[in-house]
Write a structure and sequence with these properties.
By secondary structure, the chain is of the alpha/beta class. The protein is built from 13 helices and eleven strands.
Length: 354
């Protein structure tokens, strides 16, 4: 019999966290009897209705199980291969999805400098040239990430400014909402205030990072983009046969304020972590802490030792910048333990030079 190995928590990613107990309970509740497959079941309809209630009553909703697929299939509905998607230079679709958008869509990604993770209208405008010139790729969509890869958050006004600019120039606006819940919790606004209410046309609605097993959704606020999407989802190998188990996760997340409770806790833990680290000599915050991500520079020599106990990713090796992510299950004791370890490691390093 295989031995179970106990593992601790980490700051590597909210993907490393387990599944929220209320989500597991919801999955167990639907694990009774037989229901139609491929989404033709009452549990999927319930999840879709809850998502529409949260994001917009006219939204078209399609459940999938991969965040990368949600982004690619969503964008595939918005652009053709001779067109382009404008994005932040740090965008996950640009840096961390192995060229999936370029391969599957055949389009080009046009990055915009984003030192704090966010892009602005002036940055987008730089790519709007040679419109109508058959020798040049034609911009068709903009994608923004909420919260950004740097853990910063677009306000509703910032999203609206980008959306209005996009629509004025015949562009579409996509949002990668992998950490949308954390952004909404930070801003203390309803989910629709930073999606349909701010002019977003299509959304990759992520749940995995907020305590789901594997739950993502593609949501269209511009209904024409949803035309034939059921076929696109099937061709993209994202049509789950036992969809009730994805649906049950979203129904749980959108019940009893679970999404807000989980995201608010993760955000609070990030603030606590940032506060502890900011007071340590040789450690410096590099970004505003708004969602559940903390970026810090620290002495390179101490990183391997810290990672032995608390796994995390080095975001920029040249700057010795680390990315630390908190989750719905991060505890205050975790923060205290990590901060103490950092202080100890910094102190030990200083003694070597005395």
């Amino acid at each position: 019999m295989r031995q179970k190995q106990a593992t601790g928590r980490a700051f590597a990613s909210d993907n490393w966290a387990g599944v929220h107990p209320e989500v597991l309970a919801a999955m167990a509740e639907v694990n009774v009897g037989h229901v139609p497959s491929y989404g033709a079941d009452p549990f999927t309809r319930d999840a879709e209705e809850r998502i529409r209630a949260a994001l917009g009553e006219d939204a078209e909703v399609f459940l999938v199980f991969s965040g990368t697929a949600a982004n690619v299939l969503c964008l595939q509905s918005m652009v053709r291969s001779h067109q382009a998607v404008i994005c932040a230079e740090t965008a996950h679709v640009h840096t961390s999805e192995c060229g999936a958008a370029e391969k599957q869509i055949g389009c080009k990604l046009l990055p915009v400098p984003s030192p704090n993770g966010k892009i602005t209208v002036p940055g987008i405008r730089q790519h709007l040239h040679d419109i109508g010139n058959e020798h040049h790729v034609q911009p068709r969509a903009i994608t923004i990430t909420q919260a950004t890869e740097y853990g910063t958050v677009y306000t509703p006004q910032e999203i609206r400014a980008i959306a209005d600019f996009a629509h004025t120039h015949s562009l579409l606006l996509h949002m990668d909402g992998a950490r949308l819940f954390n952004a909404a919790a930070f801003l203390d606004v309803p989910l629709r205030a930073i999606t349909s209410g701010a002019g977003v046309d299509a959304l990759s609605f992520g749940g995995t990072k907020n305590g789901l097993v594997a739950g993502e959704a593609v949501v269209f606020f511009k209904q024409v983009l949803a035309d034939d999407f059921e076929f696109r989802r099937m061709q993209g190998m994202q049509l789950a046969s036992k969809m009730r188990f994805i649906a049950a996760q979203y129904s749980a997340l959108l019940s009893n304020d679970l999404w807000k409770r989980s995201a608010s806790h993760a955000n609070r833990m990030a603030q606590l972590l940032a506060g502890e680290l900011a007071g340590i000599k040789g450690v410096a915050l590099t970004q505003q802490v708004q969602a559940n991500e903390v970026f810090v520079t620290m002495p390179p020599a101490i990183i391997p030792k810290l990672q032995e106990r608390w796994p995390f990713h080095v975001w920029d090796e040249a700057k010795s910048e680390a990315r630390l992510i908190t989750s719905f299950d991060t505890e205050e004791a975790d923060i205290a333990d990590f901060a103490a370890l950092v202080r100890q490691a910094v102190g030990a390093t200083e003694k070597q030079w005395i």
